[in-house]
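Teaching note: in complex prediction, the entire set of molecules is handled at once rather than each chain in isolation. The prompt given to students was simply: 'Predict the structure of this complex.' The entities are:
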Amino acid sequence: MFITQLLDVVTTAGVLYIVALGLLIVYGVLKIINLAHGAFLAMGAYAGVITTRAGWNPWTALLLAFVIGILVAAVVEWRVLSSLYARPLDTILATWGLNIIVVQAITLYFGREIHFAASAIERAVDVGGVTYSAYRLVLLLVAVVLGVAVWLVLQRTQIGTVARAVIMNEELAQSLGINTRLVRFVTFGLGAGLAALSGALLTPLISVHPYLGVPWLINAFMLVLVAGMSLVNLAAAALVLGGAQVVVSSYGNPVLGSLTIVILAVIILRFRTIPI
Amino acid sequence: MRQMWAGRARSVVAVLVVLGVAMLPGGAVQSQEKKAIVITIPVGLSGVNSVVAPAVVQSAELAAEEINAKGGVLGRKIQVIPLDDESGPAGAVKAFNTAIRQHKTDAIITMETSAARNAGAPIADKSNTLFIYTSFYEGKACGKNLYINAWVPEQVVPPLIKFMTDEKKVKKWFAVGSDYAFGRGMIESAKATIKGMGGTLVGEEYQPLQQSDWTAIISKIRAANPDGIIYSTSGGGPNIDFMKQFKAAGLKMPVGSLSIDELTAEAGGNAAEGVYYTGDYFTGLDNPENKAFLDAMKKKFGAGLKTPNSLSEPEYDGVYAYAMAVEKAGSTDTDKVAKVLPNIVFKGPRGQVQMNKQHHAPLPVYLAQVQADGKTKVLKGFGLIDPGNQCPNLK
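The expected output is the structure of the full assembly:
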């Protein structure tokens, strides 16, 4: 039981981390909460439906989701968001509007009913004497890989350095000749691409329907509020909040468990001394 | 030319009607006889029921077309009018009022959410309109003009539990549900049956409706190590969420579902493979009425056909039962139709259906299992199962 719970905690944290990563990157650089995050998640999940229908290998869905997410985000950033950066409140409205448009577009094309996306891994494996879902362990690994990859991009590449400069002080970066316009464009695309990728990664666990992103958006939103702009904080938040959710669901019940993330987030925000 | 004549004939009729109304009441009755019999269908064209609603409307349209092709009822055609109840009570109130006031409906025959039904039924009662409800539901909805031709838990839960107890040797049960009225109601019914059959319950867990991660419950199932699972989520996606994660966790005990349906199982691919469930209608039912029904549906709707299912097929039976009752009563008067309705036996795709038990119907119930490709295979029939005491104050 203990090993199972430990695995539940770390894999739940892994899933939350994957889902929240794209939202955090966008929030960090653009200082906006992308309320279309859930719609990008759904978009990625439907990439799985498309590759299944085409009979392709289930792993190709990840690439397709990432590309679709980036393309849609690029158009949206270029035509809509770029003119709204001076009005942060309006970007909330714009991204929520985008969320509705994407979800309705998916509904129009695929319908409201659920769809099938093939899973790459369906078996369970033996871990320390416990049978456990192999795919959840893979997701944990993916979370670590994605976390390290994003960290490397930020720390070791030109675009990452520029992005960090924008995160720290956008006006100063601009006055030094950095094209913040381009940084925003690339970041939004990358964040949305990661959101769509996480949607495709979720399909072996959940059914595919247009509204699948909604509950995930809420949890990701809470995590990002708690984590601020740090990747390490995000990992810690996923572990603490996700872990608390598992523990409360196991020893209490899942109804209480589903409230845990929100309640803990509120408490942490109330008592945290460092402003975001 | 023909049209002109038709137009002239119509105006002659109109003049006669006006004269008739002015002179003697018999004339008005005469003209009404040619008016279509209006059946309205307030159904969730938008909202949570919008996945299944189009199939319900198609069932009604086919029934009306078939009845009209044979000359209609009492020389009158049947006209079906779908209305959107928005899958909820507020929309149902609007739709029922529109049906009664604007369309002067003769009867309301529809599949709705329980909330929508509870909002609509009093309106139908108040205006003395016949209301045939064609959705399976949690049971115990009673009204003078409310008739129900689909299953209640007493009809599908005990056969499933009995099968799993007798043939799958399940003694220790784990019950899982979505945290809402229908999910909890079905599990209550299952628990009573399990107890009655000498089984024990080693766990009972409910999941919030929005939550799609079943990890904690699956770990509890593993720890409790039951012989079998009985579950009842909300319809559609949550069935597949649960089964995907259940199988991925390597759990192998037999699973009985009180919430899955053919379309969901098929959309889930191999996710629900092996799941047992009971119901009164499956497309795979092997009887001539079902074959004729499915062929006629394919012919009428072609590529636009919405696969008939356990929520949509009873609508077809409902329209037929109503038409037969009107024919027998010789009138569309609600009291007269309601008096003969319990005597009407319609042998349709499900088998023999008669709403003769406290406004509910004893129904043929079948056991089915989801196959590896997601398709449902009917394993056996249990014969007619009684709905039990749903409305003791009604006959």
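Point out the following to students. The CA atoms of residues 111 and 210 of chain A lie 8 Å apart. The first strand of chain A starts at residue 124 and ends at 127.
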